[in-house]
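Hey, I'm writing a tutorial for new members on how sequence and structure tokens pair up, and I'd like a real worked example in the thread rather than a made-up one. If someone can provide the structure for the chain below, I'll link this post from the tutorial.
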Amino acid sequence: MEINERISIIMEHFNITPSEFAEKVDVQRSSISHITSGRNKPSLEFITKVKNAFPDIEWDWLINSNGPMIKPKIEIVEEKPEAKKLPLPDLFSIIEDESFGQENSENKLLKKTNRSEPIVSAPIKEEKKIIDSQPLENFPIPQGKTTKKVKRVILFFEDGTFEAFEN
């Protein structure tokens, strides 16, 4: 099958006149007439305009007449109600307790009051604990232990967003 026949098939398939086809492809009406009659062969630019105007048409069919004319539609199959899976929880619903990620000895000392109030740890007699926004330079570093520098701090907000700060 020649390219001029494929152009005619496209117009028939989409039920449009040569004038409508020329307008949609953005070429002169005479160009369509010359191509469909076999007088002229279409340029690459013309074929590209046809493909852009009709994106469902397969390239291989348009150029070589191979395969189907239209891309096969992918059918979306809905799951049966009994086969539906439970939605995955978001990060914040998994971590409900305020002591997540802290050592066990600290967990026992923490006290949760109101969601809007900060967590306050009970004083420990053996060592001084950092409370709220106490500057690190005032906190004594135990001797004999290696000091570690903070590389990244990530804040998670209740609306599901987060901010990361790197040193």
